[in-house]
Amino acid sequence: MAQSESQSGTTPHFVTLDVFTQNRFSGNPLAIVEVPPDSDLSQQTKQLLAREFNYSETVFLHPPSSGGTASNRRYDIFTTTEELPFAGHPTIGTLVYCLDDNQAEPATRSVTLQAKAGPIVGHFNRETRIAEASIPHNVRIHQMPVPLQSILNIQPSMRKLQARLQLSCPLVSIVKGMTFVLINLPRTEDLAELIVGGPGIDRKTLRWDDGWESFTAPYFYAIVSEDEEKKHIRIRSRLIEPVCGEDPATGSAASTLCAYLALQRRLADTTYSFDIEQGIEMGRRSDIRVKVELASSGNSVKRVELSGSAVRISQGTLVI
Prior knowledge:
By secondary structure, the chain is of the alpha+beta class. It has six helices and 20 strands.
């Protein structure tokens, strides 16, 4: 940290939460740092603090702008290595933090979070303990899928399944800057055999559409059940990649996957609901809910809604 910043005397408040769960010590941990008014907290310092927390993501929540209200807040999302335009579990965690507060304005049941990817309107039901977010989306299924061999190179246990797998895996972005390789496994039991700590996907094998090169991670999943009449699908998933090892819950990846699966079904003006279980194999169960509404054409996404819970774990003050 630069000397001038370390001597600024800034002491921002922080909280940590477990997200996509109603049980402490499950779900995905998140740190939220309240940026003090008139603070000169730089993006460089935010990156250093995110590295210090060492969670998959850390949020920096800015105060309402001058003349603004508590129902409109800007937030920045950092991994340990970079800033992201959008991420799911930081969004749900921040919504719960902003709205589940006894000191909050009585009428405050919704808030608009200003992310780099665009505004996110969120709501929180204090009875069900569930936050919902209508998330920004610009779903892009890239023209060139990822060869299966690239996935087998990082997950050798999948070689015995090779005859039952597609020869390539779709490369899909939920917004520009957030991309996932979607890898469908035949059974939930196959997810348990994936290894953590191996190499990441060779980026030379990734072929984004022009102008879309971005953060990219593999998202492994198996469909547990599908109710075609109710348009409801249950999924079990894992996200494994070198930066975080394994992520207990990945709302952006879940949203990407659900948008892709809905588009494959191509039913116009139809809303699909998804329940995704993640983090089971690492002992941090997370429950993610996604709804995807298709447009009247059936080949584009009209709306993506991400929902889940969060519980507070700790709070304190940083000395910068």
